[in-house]
Specification:
Rossmann fold; binds S-adenosylmethionine; 8 helices; seven-stranded mixed β-sheet
C-alpha cells in the first residue's frame, strides 16, 4: 500500500491525538513492560527538588498516579480529553484527586511556577518545535527549578532493522477480560531533518479472534543526537545536571545510546 501524503511528505497532523483505541489501549501495551523504568528516576528528581511539579503529557496517569501515591506533589497537563478521562477514572478508583489541566504544552499558562517539570516517555519529541517548547518550559519553572526529560533515538529504524514504508507487527497483548489487542506500525524517516513519521494501526479482537474495532493514528516525532539535545537545552537556558542512557545510571550517554534521560536546571 502506498504511503498517504495528502499534504506533502512530512506534513503530519498538528498534534498527536491519543484518541479512540490509541487512548484505550495505551495502558494495556505499557503494562506488558512491567514496572515503569522511569518511575524511580522521576521520584528521585521530585525528592531532590521538592515543591509543586508538573508532568507534561501526563496521559492516563500511568506515571502520575504512582508518584501521587508516593506522596509527591505533581500536577498533570494533557491535551487529549480521552486520556484525561481515563486518568480521572483511575485516580478515583485509587482515592486520588489529582490537579489536571487540559491544555497544549506549547501554550499552557498556569499562572504559577513549578519546582520541577517532568517529560517522560518521549513527550518532548511530539512537540512540533521542541526548541520553542523548551523555552516555554523555562518560563514555567521557578529559579533553580529542574526539567526531567527522556528522548529516544530510533536506532532500529535508522539501521534498517524495521522496514521503511511497510506495516509490521509492533505489539500484541491479551487483555484481562479475554479480548486481545494489536498494534501494527509503519514509518518513514527524514534523516536530514531528523523526523520520524509513524502510523499506528490499533485493532481490538474478541476472545475468539473476531475484529471488534480498529483505529489508525499518525504521529510525527523529532529526534536529537546527545550533542543536539545539549544545544537545545543550553539555548533555552538550561544547564544539564546529569544524564543517563537507557534508564541505567551505569550506561554513559554516547552516540550508541538509544534512550537519553536528562535532568537540567533552569539558569
Ligand atoms: C507518549 S504519551 C506519554 C503519556 C504519559 N506521560 C506516560 O508516560 O504514560 C505522550 C502524551 O503526551 C500528550 N501530548 C501530546 N502532545 C501534547 C501537547 N501538545 N500538549 C499536551 N500533551 C500532549 C499525549 O496526548 C499523550 O498522552
Amino acid at each position: 500500500m502506498k504511503w498517504p501524503s495528502p499534504a506533502g511528505p512530512f506534513q503530519a497532523p498538528p498534534v498527536s491525538a491519543y484518541t479512540s483505541l490509541e487512548a484505550r489501549l495505551h495502558d494495556a501495551f505499557w503494562a506488558d513492560e512491567g514496572e515503569p523504568a522511569e518511575l524511580a528516576l522521576m521520584a528521585e528528581v521530585l525528592r531532590d527538588h521538592p515543591g509543586p511539579a508538573l508532568e507534561v503529557g501526563s496521559g492516563s496517569g500511568r506515571l502520575l498516579l504512582p508518584l501521587l501515591q508516593k506522596g509527591h506533589e505533581v500536577e498533570g497537563l494533557e491535551l487529549s480529553a480521552e486520556m484525561l478521562a481515563m486518568c480521572r477514572e483511575s485516580a478515583s478508583a485509587l482515592g486520588l484527586d489529582p490537579v489536571l489541566y487540559e491544555a497544549d504544552m506549547l501554550t499552557f499558562e498556569p499562572g504559577k511556577t513549578y519546582a520541577a517539570l517532568l517529560l517522560p516517555a518521549f513527550t518532548l519529541q511530539l512537540a512540533p518545535d521542541p526548541a520553542a517548547a523548551l523555552e516555554h518550559f523555562h518560563r514555567l519553572l521557578r529559579p533553580g527549578g529542574v526539567i526531567y526529560l527522556s528522548v529516544f533515538i530510533p536506532l532500529a529504524e535508522l539501521h534498517g532493522e524495521l522496514p521503511e514504508g511497510e506495516w509490521y507487527d509492533d505489539h500484541r497483548t491479551r487483555l484481562p477480560d479475554g479480548r486481545s489487542a494489536a498494534v501494527e506500525t509503519r514509518h518513514r524517516l527524514d534523516r536530514k531533518s531528523r523526523i520520524l513519521d509513524r502510523e499506528h494501526r490499533y485493532s481490538l479482537f474478541d476472545a475468539g479472534g473476531g475484529l471488534l474495532d480498529e483505529h489508525t493514528s499518525r504521529q510525527t516525532l523529532r529526534w536529537f543526537t546527545p550533542r543536539q539535545l545539549r544545544g537545545l537545552l543550553a539555548k533555552a537556558g538550561f544547564k544539564p545536571l546529569h544524564a543517563v542512557a537507557d534508564f541505567d545510571a551505569e550506561i554513559p550517554v554516547d552516540d550508541e545510546a538509544q534512550i537519553i534521560t536528562v535532568v537540567a536546571c533552569r539558569d
